[in-house]
Amino acid sequence: MSGEPSLSPLRLFFREAIARSVGEEMRRDPRVIVMGQDVGAFGGSYREFSGLFGEFGGARVRDTPVAEAAMVGLGVGAAAAGLRPLVSITYMDFMMLGLDPLVNYGAKLRYKTGGRMTAPVVIKTTAGAKGQGVAHSQCIEAWLMSVPGLKVVAPSTVADAYGLMKAALREEGPVVYVDHKRLFPSAGEAPRDEILTPIGQACIRRAGSDLTIATHGYMTGVVLEAVDVLAGEGLSCEVVDLRTLSPLDVTTLSASVGRTRRLLTVEEGQVTCGVGAEVAARMRESFGAVPMARLGALAAPVSFNPVLEAACIPDAGRVCSAARALCG
Amino acid sequence: MPDAVALLRKMMLIRAFEEALARRPDHGFQLLSTGEEAVSVGLCAALESDDQLLSGGRSIGAALARGVDPGRLMAELLGRTEGTNRGKGGRGHVADPGVGFFGAHAVVGGNLSIAAGVALSRQVLGAPGIVAVMFGDGAFGAGVLHETLNIAAIWRLPLLFVCNNNQLSVSTPRSAVLAPKVLSDLARAYGMPARTVDGMSLEAVADAAADAARGVRAGEGPAFLELESLRFASHSTSARETRDRDVLAKMRTRCPIQRFQGALMARGEIDEGVVAGLRREIDLAVADAIAFAEASPFPAPGEALTDVW
What we know:
heterodimer, A: alpha/beta, 2 domains, 12 helices, B: alpha/beta, Rossmann fold, 6-stranded parallel sheet, two-stranded antiparallel ribbon
């Protein structure tokens, strides 16, 4: 309220921001339920659902068998019939098992019924490498970007982990919410008041004039680390955190690249047909042949082996090298 | 059981509707349920207005049996905007939840978990009604059937599984690709009531469906019905027929419509006059459906981009 001193923001862990967001939405809307492996009394593999089972009980916070295909199918079906389910897929790699109901039913339902039905489901899943090997480390969000009707969001901050989850749970169609193993232990600030992070809006995390770096999720922090180093060398980088991968915020990207006339894309997933490939193609259509480069994982599986894992995925040093090469 | 003449009429309507559709040069690609009419009609005789039915891609019989308006259905099948889905879904995706037909979904086995989700929604919201899902024997090869049987059983979902076992996946006989001798045995392993019934007998299907639906409706959890039927035509209107002509001819002597009609006549419940009257009425209904569809336009090309996001 005006006239009163504003309260300081809350300091939360990333996982707490998710639990707070889902809990608030469950209190607000009895149609919101959570389904997934170990989401009940265990509180989620990363404790990101901690407290929900105790508050809402087993009817709304449901442990499932290990059955990703059916879990996603139940989610889209329940959504089409009036619930607003959140389906938790512990590792993004296992979303492959649930793509049929998500892509063939959930994402197409509004279209195939001429707008008469929708599937407001959120698939929350965890991407990224953290020593768990070739089938538990992948970032396949770019695969999902080519599905019409499917929204894809990827928070990089505690505030957006909270705000994007709220927005996703209020969407009328399916949303895939991609978080990252390395983000869960991170802490950050979230406002005390309810906020929604609008889906479809990127965010400029750092203003700069020499180069636009477009990135998302955990890589945003890696890029910011690199940008600090580059600033010491006199290179001014603008960091665009995409936040929503589909639909892409081409407006924010275009405004940035229009200023800097150079683009570097950074992602943890594959460069081939990756997020950066789409961003670069869109910017090429707007600006012609401005200097561009893409940085992502090597074209290889991501090993559990710490040496090979580190060799495979981008780090701040590689971001710096790629930025220097573009601006040199 | 509802009025026997009404059930006979529904089976006759499905047959006449599909035949009229298949005769048209513009019908595209259709999966017909000729020979399997008793499955849809017998099942729907056990469903009430709060219930929802989901089908696979062989949807026309299911949709008509459940009460989808023939004109809107024909318009949908022919891609017209007055169709149930504005002409955007077609035969594989017809949906009309307002009359209890939650929809077809043309991925074999793909509708099972979705139906369980619809049932879950009812359970969580405390909404009345049960959910029935029809699928072919082909879905037995798919892992999601087993995942869904398991979840439906542990969560005691108000879900009736209805396997229309027409013995074939396109051209492949079920004996070549499915290990269980009796498909309903699998459901029994998950602890739900399960029966295998003659799907060519309307009365057997209707009795079994009513019995199974009663338990589901009473909150006893899911149930399973295997209905053994015969597909009189090839897989689709564009698929090659691989069976011998004499095999097909023999098969057609087991027509479920003739069988039920004969039973009603033998019991003196109807006579030739009633049948002739039904035939006239159905011919008119089908002609009306076609006229309704033909009067409806195709969507404008710009509708390719509407209702996507």
